[in-house]
Amino acid sequence: MTQLEDLKDAMHSPPDFQPAPLDLQQVMSAGGRMRRRRRLAVGGASALTVAALLIGGSQLAGLRGPVGPMPGSGVSAPSAGVSAAPGVVGTIVETGRQAEGRRWIIYAETVDPNDLDATLTLVLGRTRTGTIDDFDRVIVSSDPGAGRLAPGFHAVQAGRLVEGRTTPTFGYYVGDAARITARDATTGKTVEAKRASWSAFDESERATIFWFDFTQGKPPATLTDLTAGG
Amino acid sequence: MARGDDEFIAFAQASSSRLQRAAYLLTGDQHQAEEAAQATLVRVYAAWGRISRKDPYAYARTVLANLVTDQWRRPMREYATETMPEQQAPQDVADVVSKRRWLIGVLQALSPRERAVIVLRHFFDASEAEVARELGLPAGTVKALNSRALAKLRITAGLVPPLRTETEAGAGL
After folding, report:
1. CATH number of this structure's domain B1-77
2. Chain A, 79-138: which have a CB under 8 Å from a chain B CB?
3. A89: helix, coil or strand?
4. Where are the domains of chain B?
5. Burial zone of B104 (CB within 10 Å; 0-12 exposed, 13-18 middle, 19+ buried)
6. Were B20 and a residue from A19, A197, A226, B86 both cysteine, which residue would form a disulfide, CB within 3.0 to 4.6 Å?
């Protein structure tokens, strides 16, 4: 039999292998191009997002009464040509529910693709066409400061009624989560969230966007004890 | 040079050998290992602005493991086997290099996921939770893959003094 230390030793000193010097100039050239492509991709989306911001802003302004706390709602429209422009990052999630012909969607956006940990923001909105230019931003949610890609729950917003439309309890979770559940404070029952995998530019920027099912026109359930299970 | 380039160069120089060695363990091919390590450093450089103050080495480790396992997913080059090569005769096993060569050979016969778990867990010393997060696998799956792979490698959990009799410069950060 073999000991674990033998395996570690073999892996650290594999026979028949010698590391080669790598061309760091080429690495930095290719890495720089990749960085610029990412910024362009996010910046391209941002032009459409600006339109959505304006549409969403006017509709938010028309709301009667408070819609509750909206941390991170102070996202401002960028000036054109700024590389660190806001934009949609990753998958746009369809909740499968709609109100007045517009589908409820959830997506993530950033003002700085190189610093998602401090800028990642979750948006609940509605769309009729499924394209970004008719997004109606309803709730914008983010954690304060950095650590937005740290393991755990983030940007969680409780369901509410906004102009008679029911919004879901939603947020995102970083880490393993085969199930995300909460307890319905009224019935005492455990309810399970719907989940969608989300990732940004690379493997380290992954999360699960989740939301609890909701029925239009009915008050949203009051949920407690949000839990992620492996 | 862009801001932070000096720091990146220092990081790349310090970690290049170890990343290549890990890539070799994952691919079993020297040329592919160089390419994978280089592609990893490209992605690290692209993300340097946001990762340099955190743990760029952990980031590089994640990128490398996923790059290699993604490549495996495409051509479906799955060559796992339940039948491992027989360990060599005792007199050969006594020879450190022979034993290392045998272990690396057996490592190459594991499935890609088993091999990725073994390399992350026992070459990089990542915890099971870190491996699960970095490979996007449930923690239970990582535990099972690790146990199965160690069984194939006929590893016992006994604690003995390390067999290491020679060290390579630049093996660590």
Report:
1. 1.10.1740
2. 114-117
3. strand
4. 1-77, 79-159
5. buried
6. A19
Q: What is the pLDDT of residues A103-116, one digit of tens each?
A: 899 989 887 777 78
Question: A interface mutation test: which of B15, B18, B42 has the most A CBs within 10 A?
Answer: B42
Are the folds of B1-77 and B79-159 the same? no
What is the ipTM metric for this complex?
A: 0.74
Calpha distance A83→A88 (Å, rounded): 14
**N-to-C CA span, chain B:** 24
Question: Do A189 and A213 contact (CB within 8 A), yes or no?
Answer: no
- A193 and A182 in contact (C-beta within 8 Å)? yes
**Closest CA–CA distance from residue B116 to any residue of chain A (Å):** 12
Instruction: Tell me the CATH number of domain B79-159, given options 1.10.10.10, 3.90.650.10, 2.60.120.260, 2.60.40.420.
Output: 1.10.10.10
Rounded to whole angstroms, the Cα distance separating B77 from B60 reads 24
Looking at this protein, which amino acid is placed at residue B93? V
Written as one letter, the residue type at A68 is G
Nearest residue on chain A to B137, alpha-carbon basis = A176
Per the structure block, which two tokens stand in for B49?
Answer: 């602005």
Using a CB–CB cutoff of 8 Å, tell me whether B111 touches chain A.
no
- Contact (CB<8Å) B160/A22: no
* CA terminus-to-terminus distance, chain A: 33
